[in-house]
């Protein structure tokens, strides 16, 4: 399959795009894994993730870390960025945002393994950290610690 064939269905890469107004409207695109059959991990870090509290409509902020071991597909990074920023005007609790992102990636990519850590900054004095994982870490693949310390205030 030629590169032209591989990339002809991508709608965002290399072109002008419009910011989706909601996660439901956002399109996650995928590209073939050029190293299929080689076990390796991929990490995306989004230290400035934002969404809205569904009750107060106030902004919530998180540091997201997404790790996955691909099978046939990789997520196209521009589509992932647009998907994540589509939450800026989306009202949902921390748990729902974090788990929904993980499940959407799993549905799109069908990875061998995926985990997401949502390290949410405090509102009302309590930080909430949310974790979703599809199963045991695969053997033979180095999966680094997420390395995000729990919130310690001014400490």
TrEMBL record:
GO cellular component: cytoplasm
Subcellular location: Cytoplasm
Gene3D superfamilies on file: 3.30.1130.10
Keyword field contains Ion transport: no
Main localization, broad class: cytoplasm
Active site positions: 53, 60
Membership in a protein family: Belongs to the GTP cyclohydrolase I family. QueF type 1 subfamily.
Main function: Catalyzes the NADPH-dependent reduction of 7-cyano-7-deazaguanine (preQ0) to 7-aminomethyl-7-deazaguanine (preQ1).
This protein's name: NADPH-dependent 7-cyano-7-deazaguanine reductase
Organism whose genome encodes this protein: Pseudovibrio axinellae
Gene that this sequence comes from: queF
